[in-house]
Specification:
Chain lengths: ~120, ~425
């Protein structure tokens, strides 16, 4: 499964990469912000996008809106990886078309499984 | 004169009735009215705070008077509070009930003090004073007692008007606190997520003999534990600043020595991005009477930001000079500069500019510039962003030199 992961925190990019690769069955490319992720998603056509919400420049919500508005990327599911506990914000993410939300902090040993479940619609 | 005084009294009464009923306004109206005690050169309302008397309101143009505090014991005001009687001092030079040293300091020769009663105790005094001896008499005693009656009436309404105003302030404070807690929690969640992400993976890697991966993950854990420590340290400083408890330990120091120490500490981080420090300073040493640790902390935050936002291989220039009797430190980087829309909130808490997650450099806590600005302010100096500078970001720090030390830090905590 091809995943684009977007986060401006270098350490978290490393951790997510190691977590998904050690789980197996994932191919991963990372971006540091929404704008560079857009280009990457359009070109690489991943099976899903996993994204942080709070990012400088284009944030996760703006990325989601951009992906949805482009026919080339509109069908690619986006999952947020976020520390936000605000109910309204979480509802807003799903209402705008996010496939799911994974909470930060997350269990790195379960991340791959969790992500695969959400992408396949089993969760 | 007595008629004028009575008109003054009437005028005060009407103004107080027309005011919104806040006690501070009553105090101000009374001390600002000249007619009620025309022979006085100044008037004050002093209230007990701990074992001191602090001015709640004062009419006196001299700043040294405005900031004065009087001891409760050994002053005429203190005696009036204890005895509950209006006291007149005709000449401070011969009256052993007064604090002679304090009277001389502000050039006071005679005064009349009347205690302010509230709920069975005296909470302060109304005081009129003059630079001339013997100007207050029996009629003045009557006038001050009538004035204190107005204050006492205001105090009895305290529960209504003040309580409403206090409630508003309290709600605002609670809201600010909630926002702050929410921001702090968010700031802590990132390093916690990194720790809880890195440690189980490190455990797995080390168990399966992948030592290099395990070590890399432990380094991530370490880095994020340090980030949490920095955040907590910064939060404690911010708390101390909010409470006004930032402690300063002032010493005579040379500016270039402080800057050298800061740069030596940051050298390893700068080297990881192949950055170079270019330092210029005048031949004459710049001496400051300052807190070297706090000043270092303020400068570290600025230089660490410069490192964070510099392109690899860039130059960070630190220029020290004397200008208009001030020590001026200019710190320039070759980064993207501060975006226009961000400049207003640059020095506020948890303000972050785009790109503050640069690889290889420790992440900021979002409190650095706020702390630096507060420290420099306490050290009687300041910091600003040079908005004219276009080749990166330029911060300018100004501090009084040893010879021209005035103001807050040195006086209050020296």
């Amino acid at each position: 499964m091809k995943i684009v992961y977007v986060d401006d925190d270098e350490d978290l990019r490393d951790i997510v990469e190691l977590a998904l690769l050690s789980h197996g069955g994932f191919e991963l490319q990372c971006s540091t912000d929404g704008a560079s992720a857009l280009a990457l998603v359009e070109q690489w056509q991943p099976d899903a996008v996993l994204s942080d919400v709070h990012m400088a420049g284009m944030d996760g919500m703006a990325l989601l809106a951009e992906l949805r508005s482009n026919p080339a990327t509109a069908r690619i599911p986006l999952i947020f990886l976020t520390a936000t506990t605000d109910r309204q914000k979480r509802a807003g993410m799903l209402a705008l078309g996010a496939r799911g939300i994974i909470d930060k902090p997350f269990d790195p040993r379960r991340l791959g499984e969790h992500l695969a479940e959400i992408v396949s619609g089993a969760s | 004169m007595q008629n004028d005084q009575l008109s003054g009294l009437l005028c005060i009464q009407q103004s107080v009735l027309a005011s919104s009923g806040l006690l501070q306004q009553t105090y101000d109206i009374i001390v600002e009215n000249h007619a009620v005690m025309p022979q006085a050169t100044g008037a004050a309302i002093e209230l007990i705070e701990g074992n001191m008397l602090r001015y709640a309101a004062v009419r006196d143009s001299r700043p040294e008077v405005k900031s004065m505090q009087l001891p409760l014991v050994g002053s005429l005001s203190g005696r009036a509070i204890l005895t509950g009687a209006t006291l007149i001092c005709n000449d401070s030079e011969t009256d052993d009930r007064v604090d002679l040293e304090a009277c001389r300091r502000v050039g006071l020769r005679s005064m009349i003090v009347t205690p302010i009663p509230y709920r069975g105790a005296n909470i302060g005094v109304l005081k009129f004073y003059s630079s001339e001896p013997g100007v207050f008499g029996d009629f003045d005693e009557l006038v001050t007692q009538l004035l204190v009656g107005i204050i006492a009436a205001g105090l009895s309404q305290i529960s209504e008007t003040e309580a409403l105003a206090m409630k508003g302030k309290l709600l605002e404070a609670v809201q600010l606190k909630q926002e702050f807690v929410s921001m702090v929690s968010h700031e802590l969640k990132s390093p916690i997520a990194a720790l809880l992400g890195a440690l189980p993976l490190a455990e797995d890697a080390l168990a399966s003999g992948e030592t290099a991966t395990g070590q890399r993950l432990l380094a991530i854990a370490m880095r994020n534990a340090e980030r949490m420590k920095r955040l907590v340290d910064d939060l404690m400083d911010v708390h101390a600043m909010d409470e006004g408890h930032l402690t300063l330990d002032l010493k005579s120091v040379e500016l270039s020595e402080i800057v050298s120490t800061v740069l030596a500490d940051l050298e390893p981080t700068a080297r990881s991005k192949q950055l170079r420090f270019a330092v210029t300073q005048p031949q004459e040493p710049i001496r400051l009477n300052t807190d070297p640790n706090r000043l270092s902390q303020a400068i570290v935050n600025i230089v660490a930001n410069a490192i964070r936002f510099s392109p690899i291989g860039g130059i960070i220039s630190i220029n020290m000079e004397l200008s208009a009797n001030q020590a001026v430190i200019r710190i320039d980087d070759q980064g993207p500069g501060i975006p226009e829309e961000f400049r207003d909130k640059l020095f506020t808490r948890f303000s972050r500019v785009a790109g503050d997650h640069a690889p290889g450099t420790p992440q900021g806590t979002g409190l650095g510039l706020f702390i630096s600005q507060n420290i420099l302010h306490e050290l009687s100096g300041g910091i600003q962003l040079d908005s004219q500078y276009k080749s990166g970001a330029r911060f300018i720090i100004r501090l009084p030199t040893e010879q021209h030390q005035t103001g807050r830090g040195s006086e209050r905590r020296g």
